[in-house]
Amino acid sequence: MFILCDFDDTAATQNVAVLLLERFHPGGWRAAADRFRRGEISLAEYQEQAFAGVSAPQEQQAEHVRRAAALRPGFVELAAHCKREGIGLGVVSHGLDYYIRALLNENGLPHVGVQAAERSPQTGTYSYRWADPACGWYPGNCKCSAVRAHRQAGHAVLYAGDGASDACPAREADFVFARDVLLSVCRAEGIPHRELTDFYVVLDYLRTAPTEARS
Q1: CA-angle at 8, arms to 92 and 88, nearest 5°
Q2: How do residues 47-64 score in pLDDT, each as one tens digit?
């Protein structure tokens, strides 16, 4: 079994990207957000344009994340359970790896894998190592390909997410833990799921689901 989890507003209790933008580029990123909402630019283009105005070094940003952001209740306990039981756990995100790792490391979780966008601290350039030209979220990372890769390796895949970009991987996962927009999608499309209020919900599933569902 492998558990894949979105980061902003899912593993983290808030959108950490917005937390950083509000601290280090207040107001200046909103024009890009409006253009993205109108469908004029891609999610990757929004992110790059929004963070273009952030001049603070990545370590200063990471320090702010460590002080101001939080993981959703139960995530640390879930990670410990997965480590004990040999269950894979990874974060898949369109966000930036350095702020994701900052919060994971702050909570003693450097072993949790991260598939996210990367921004060079030296040049400010972006790379999307898990991009797929066939993905509707291209040029950003493709969350669906992560689900497919683990399923092709023979794992049942549980997916946790909250947003529109989580709909595709949710459709391909074996079971979903959903909140916000994704919860509405799961209800409308009949995708097997539980509401993600916290990660104790996932722990409860792992402890009570039939054995075949946990293989």
Answers
A1: 35
A2: 999 999 899 999 999 999
